[in-house]
Design goal:
With 127 residues, the protein is mainly alpha-helical. It is built from eight helices and no strands.
Length: 127
């Protein structure tokens, strides 16, 4: 339910923003795709294909507008979601699974690299 609420709010926010150009509309669509369903992998070429553009154009668009690659954007959003979920009653293992990590330790390493602290320390700080 929490995931569905987040996706709905993200979609509403993106749909109600007035894109100024075709590139802005493409970027909004790509961001929406990259922010949903973290449980399953979403290869960047698949996003580009769905939008009818090349991977290099998608990468260039993200770098020009957001100063990061589409993959970096997805990881950042995933880690923001992780920080939020760790503030709930979910365990680190459950959060890792919800975000598509098969291995809790890989999740912990990526979380620490992004946030500078382990998920356990982050979780203790939000209690």
């Amino acid at each position: 339910l929490l995931g569905l609420s987040y996706r709905l709010l993200s979609r509403i926010a993106l749909e109600h923003a007035e894109p100024e150009s075709p590139d802005d509309r493409l970027l909004s669509s790509a961001r929406l795709m990259l922010e949903k369903d973290f449980q399953h992998p979403l290869p960047v070429p698949e996003v580009a294909r769905s939008l009818g553009i090349s991977r290099s154009r998608l990468d260039r668009l993200f770098r020009e507008k957001l100063q990061q690659s589409p993959l970096e954007y997805r990881i950042r959003k995933k880690m923001e979601r992780a920080a939020y979920l760790l503030g709930t009653a979910l365990s680190v293992k459950e959060v890792a699974f919800l975000l598509g990590y098969c291995n809790q330790f890989h999740f912990s390493n990526e979380f620490k690299r992004f946030h500078g602290v382990s998920p356990q320390i982050h979780q203790q700080g939000s209690d």
